[in-house]
Write the structure tokens for this entry.
Amino acid sequence: MPSDLSLPNPTSATYQHLLLRIISIDVFLKGYFLVCVISLPLTNNVFYHLYHVLLLPIKIKVTDSIFIFIQPQHDYLLMDTAKWYFTSLGVDEINNCKVVSKVHKVNKQTQQVQPTHLDEECEAQTIETIRSIPASCSQRIIELNHTLWTQLDNSERWLYVVPKTDVLMVLCSKQEPSVINLLGVGISS
């Protein structure tokens, strides 16, 4: 095994059951022989964070309902903890990930890992706080006259864009309803 690669989890007896989640077994006949090929992914020691790329309309100043947003080129972005390297992924690649644990997944690398400081990939540039939209980003302008809601990762958290003051009524069991006035961009939970 190359020195820069390792198994995705420790080989102790405590973790051996996790190997069953990520191995692939191919069986075929070759002449008179039954051949079994066991594939086990190897990983490097770099941990990547998975970002779901969502469009987020931002109000253009001195307008009431005109917004600008970046049209994402990729569905997901993987970026190392130091944010030096990244790669993009599509929905199909995410769905093909093998689950090692609740927070760890393994996927066959199909895209080249690129350095963030040398590449002008729009999504990679916008992970950090930006003051203006990078030139490499595909921009769109829309007129938004109603509240836009986007659910975040199958949770109870929602991203909202509210062009004009809107009311959110919160209903909780055994409590009086509460009313919250919304305006602008934010996350509700």
